[in-house]
Amino acid sequence: MESLVEKLFNESLIYDACDKFGIGIIEFVKLGDFENYVFEIKTESQSYILRLTHSTHRVEEQVLAELEWINYLQAAGVKTPRAFHSIQNNLTEQLAVEDSYFTACLFEKAKGHKVNRKDPAIWNNTTFFNWGKLIGKMHALTKAYDSSLSKVKRPHWDEDDLLEFEQYIPAEGNNLVIKNSHHHLEKISLLPKNRNNYGLIHTDLHAGNFFVDNEDIIAFDFDDCSYQWFASDIAIPLYYSVLPIQSTEERHAFASDFLKCFLDGYRTENSLDPQWILLIPDFMKLREMVLYSVLHKKLTPTELAEPGMQRWVRELKQNIEQAKTIVNIDFSLYS
Fold first, then answer.
1. Is 25 within 8 Å of 42 (Cβ atoms)?
2. Which SS3 state, helix, strand or coil, does residue 210 take?
3. 2 falls in which pLDDT band (50, 70, 90)?
4. CATH for 125-334, among 3.40.50.300, 3.90.1200.10, 3.30.70.20, 3.30.365.10?
């Protein structure tokens, strides 16, 4: 979290938010604080997930647009925790801090458990198939989603401040990174858009953003949802699934197996023109550029210099400078 926001946050905001949603808090546990403050709220009867979003990250209307889409998907059968209304029957509540505010929203706690990559009972072809099936269902549903009633729509992909590379990436030593990133943005921006390939999508459904409940995939963390090409929602799970694998050969072998299972599941729910499968590498490259930007935005120089982080940042930099893709497989085999 940026230092400015950290200075504004205090624990009283948690209690204020719970009061507005009418829940009696017994204790809370912080779950995350990278882009939002996320807490598990424990009451006498059940647990909830409370999220506090500072206005420098999202304005309240953008959060509301996210929650309306989540509840639309949930009502249509997508496995995702629903968002609750407050005492005043609002999905969001504003908590003022100095000349800014936090937006509070409350979710039911997702069923199931975290994905453990080392557990073959979870990290297997069945999960990959169901993962793809879930995203395919979301894409099929988003084609029919009418966001015209929302005060503010979710942003389009090119409205992301992280694409303003010069704002966050130091110029010194990164000239080629910035140049190649802008060139890639121009390439992506020329892609065609229609309801069958572009719409409101999750954008970040990697294995850290869902739980597994038997064979159900329970999706959460829609904070980054935006209007993008559907192919990006396929590229992101592939990207993060191969990222921890160090061996290039093992990465490629895993990517081949993963993508087949994932797309088999996806195609049970939604049809996507095969040409978009060939563009998955371009969306993985775009994600690396966004990651390079967000790491420089969120982390201090000391944090960036930590050994594990330093290796990752170095790999991102090299891939962007050399226009490399994290995996080099024949995507035409899956189109």
1. yes
2. strand
3. confident
4. 3.90.1200.10
Closest by CA position to 116, among listed 19, 207, 245: 207
Provide the β-strand partners of residue 96.
101
**How many H-runs (helices) and E-runs (strands) does the chain carry?**
11, 9
Rounded average pLDDT over 234-242: 99
In this predicted structure, what is the pLDDT of residue 149? 67
Can you give the residue ranges of every domain in the chain? 3-108, 125-334
Whether domain 3-108 has CATH 3.30.200.20: the reply is yes
The residue type of 180 is N
d(CA 186, CA 168) in angstroms, rounded, equals 19
Angle in degrees, CA 77, 78, 82, rounded to 5: 95
Q: What is the pLDDT of residues 10-22, one digit of tens each?
A: 999 999 999 999 9
Question: Between the CA of residue 247 and those of 144, 297, 308, what are the distances in Å?
Answer: 42, 29, 16
Are 266 and 135 contacting, i.e. CB atoms less than 8 angstroms apart?
yes
Mention every residue, 6+ apart, whose C-beta is less than 8 A from residue 75: none
Q: What is the pLDDT of residue 49?
A: 98
What's the pLDDT at 3?
81
- 3-108 and 125-334 share one fold: no
Q: According to the model, what pLDDT value does residue 233 have? A: 99
Average pLDDT, the chain: 96
pLDDT attached to residue 251: 96
Residue 4: predicted pLDDT: 85
Between CA 230 and CA 192 the distance in angstroms is 12
Query: d(Cα 297, Cα 303) in Å, to the nearest integer?
Result: 12
Please list, in sequence order, all residues whose beta carbon lies within 8 angstroms of the beta carbon of residue 53, skipping any fewer than 6 positions away. 35, 36, 37, 63, 102, 103, 105, 223
Cα(24)–Cα(15) distance, integer angstroms = 9
Cα atoms in the 13 Å half-sphere on the side-chain side of 142: 28
According to the model, what pLDDT value does residue 273 have?
97
